């Protein structure tokens, strides 16, 4: 089973209307469609671009106003998925649920279904500056091409949550990200490699680029898309199937061969998933079955 995936290095810049946002997203969607992609990944917080529109009174919008665009966002991306017959991981969008803000990844299916995965680990900036709340649980999603999970940025830095996703059967982890400097970027990138090695899964990663001068905490972005593999003979030696050019407006595309994952789990140079010492630490497969 092979899956063709595209990841968008989304260029943030000031726009004037929701239509501007829709046209930019459509450009990336059509590009991925031309490449024959079956899954398309957008980055974390890319919808903060909508805040640069400002209010009708000419005042600056804040993160608290972003949930006001939710219906338009969901309708736009649901139509993209149905029109192109692609699965779209629409980055993340901030929603308001019972008076609390959540940073939520959205998975748009070609048949019109929309699934959600709230970010589970919240950074200090999200907590103190934007008053975000963490999600309550981990989901995995079944698709015609296999089982996937969507873990956002900071989530990938915690090995336990990816262990849980793998124990639930996920072979591909999609990681929408948003980092503002080299330190944050490399934290996410390096830990994505670690999670791919530990769990013998693919990690599809991307981030925002560009700048939103009128949006607090989105003035700087440092990003690069990559498709990351385990480090074993069937895969590239550095565990990088494809990566974009740093901070360029572009899409990267690659084919993920799931059969190679199954092969290395059984007969690889190392068999990290099989060789876990579950006599010493928790067995998430067993926990998943009993739970």
Describe the structure.
- Strand 4 (about 100-110) and strand 5 form a beta hairpin.
- Helix 1 packs parallel to helix 2, helix 4 (about 160-165) runs parallel beside helix 5 (about 180-200) and helix 4 crosses helix 7.
- This protein has one domain (about 1-270): Nitrilase/N-carbamoyl-D-aminoacid amidohydrolase.
- The chain is globular, with a radius of gyration of 18 Å.
- Strands 1, 2, 3, 4, 5, 6, 7, 8, 9, 10, 11, 12 and 13 form a 13-stranded mixed beta sheet that branches.
- It is an alpha/beta fold and about 290 residues long.
- The protein is built from seven helices and 13 strands.
- The protein starts with a strand and ends with a helix.
- This is Putative amidohydrolase.
- Keywords: Hydrolase.
- It holds the Pfam family CN_hydrolase.
Give me the secondary-structure topology.
Elements (H helix, E strand, L loop, with lengths): L1 E11 L5 H17 L4 E3 L28 H15 L2 E11 L2 E9 L5 E5 L5 H5 L3 E2 L7 E3 L2 E5 L8 H9 L4 E6 L4 H18 L2 E9 L15 E3 L11 E4 L6 E8 H10 L16 H7 L1
Parallel strand pairs: 1-2, 1-10, 2-3, 4-6, 8-9, 9-10
Antiparallel strand pairs: 1-13, 3-4, 4-5, 7-8, 10-11, 11-12
Helix pairs in contact: 1-2, 4-5, 4-7
Key words describing this protein structure:
27% strand, alpha/beta, single chain, 28% helix, 7 helices, Nitrilase/N-carbamoyl-D-aminoacid amidohydrolase, 291 residues, globular
């Amino acid at each position: 089973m092979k899956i063709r995936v595209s990841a968008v290095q989304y260029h943030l810049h000031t726009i004037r209307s929701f239509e501007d946002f829709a046209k930019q997203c459509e450009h990336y969607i059509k590009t991925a469609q031309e490449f024959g992609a079956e899954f398309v990944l957008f980055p974390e917080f890319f919808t903060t671009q909508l805040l640069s529109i400002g209010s009708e009174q000419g005042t600056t919008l804040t993160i608290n106003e972003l949930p006001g665009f939710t219906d338009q966002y969901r309708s736009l991306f649901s139509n993209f998925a149905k029109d192109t017959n692609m699965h779209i991981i629409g980055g993340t969008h901030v929603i308001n649920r019972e008076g609390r803000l959540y940073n939520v990844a959205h998975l748009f299916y070609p048949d019109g279904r929309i699934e959600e995965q709230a970010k589970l680990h919240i950074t200090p900036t999200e907590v103190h500056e934007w008053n975000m709340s963490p999600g309550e649980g981990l989901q995995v999603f079944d698709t015609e091409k296999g089982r996937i999970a969507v873990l956002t940025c900071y989530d990938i830095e915690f090995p336990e949550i990816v262990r849980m996703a793998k124990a639930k059967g996920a072979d591909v982890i999609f990681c929408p990200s948003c980092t503002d400097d080299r330190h944050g970027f490399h934290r996410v990138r390096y830990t994505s490699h670690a999670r791919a090695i530990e769990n013998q899964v693919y990690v599809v990663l991307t981030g925002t680029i560009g700048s939103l001068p009128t949006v607090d905490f989105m003035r700087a972005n440092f990003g690069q898309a990559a498709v990351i593999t385990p480090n074993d003979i069937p895969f590239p030696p550095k565990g990088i199937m494809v990566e974009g050019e740093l901070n360029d407006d572009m899409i990267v595309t690659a084919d993920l061969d799931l059969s190679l994952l199954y092969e290395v789990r059984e007969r690889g140079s190392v068999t990290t998933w099989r060789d876990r010492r579950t006599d010493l630490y928790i067995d998430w497969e067993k926990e998943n079955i009993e739970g």
